[in-house]
Amino acid sequence: MACLDTSVLLDLAGRGGARGVRQAMAKLRMLVAQGEGLVTTRISVAELYVGVWRSHDPPLERKRVEVILEGLDILDFDQRAADLFGQITAHLQQIGRPIGDLDVMIAAISLVNGHLLVTGNASIFCKSRSSSSRPIDLWYAALDG
C-alpha cells in the first residue's frame, strides 16, 4: 500500500498548479500499475479541512476534498503510531533535526501499517535521516518528480 501525505493530496486538488496535478497523477498511475493500493491518514484529512475552513467558498472546497478522498482508505492514529511518533520525535530532537509534529504523525501512521509514504515534501523527511539504527532510518520513502 502507498500512503499519500497531504502534499500529494493538495497536488491532486490542483494547489500545485497544472504541473503538480500532472506529476501527482503520474505517480498514482505508476503506483496503481505496480499493484499498490492507495491510502491516506486522518491527519492529512484534518489538514485538508483546514483548507476548507480557510477558503473563500467552504462548501465548494469541501466538495473538492470529498472527491479527492473518495476511494481512499483512511488510517487512524492509534497507540502503535503514538508510540512510534514519540520515538521518532525524541530521536529527531536529540540529533537537532526536528520536523513538524503532523509530518511525524503521518510518517508514524504509514510506518506502523507497513506502507510506503508518498510525499511531495521529501526535503522535510530527508533532513531527518541520520546514520543511527533508530527507526528514523527506516520510515522515509518518497517518490520524487
Mean pLDDT: 84
Count of extended strands? 4
Adjacency order of strands in the biggest sheet: 3-2-1-4
Structural class, from helix and strand content?
A: alpha/beta
Distance between the termini: 20 Å
Estimate what percentage of residues fall within beta strands: 5-15%
- The gyration radius over C-alpha positions equals 15 Å
Reported for the largest beta sheet, the result is: 4 strands, parallel
pLDDT < 50 stretches: 127-145
Shape: globular
Give helix % range.
55-70%
Q: Could you spell the SSE succession in H and E letters?
A: EHHEHHEHHEHH
Number of helices: 8
What report would you give on this structure?
This protein is α/β, with parallel strands linked by helices. The protein has eight helices and four strands. It has helices at 6-12, 17-33, 42-54, 58-69, 79-94, 101-112, 122-126, 136-139; strands spanning 2-4, 38-41, 73-75, 116-118. It has a four-stranded parallel beta sheet.
Short description:
The protein is α/β, with parallel strands linked by helices and 145 residues long. It contains 8 helices and 4 strands, in the order E-H-H-E-H-H-E-H-H-E-H-H. The chain has a 4-stranded parallel β-sheet with strand order 3-2-1-4.
Describe the secondary-structure layout.
Blueprint: E1 2-4, H1 6-12, H2 17-33, E2 38-41, H3 42-54, H4 58-69, E3 73-75, H5 79-94, H6 101-112, E4 116-118, H7 122-126, H8 136-139
Parallel strand pairs: 1-2, 1-4, 2-3
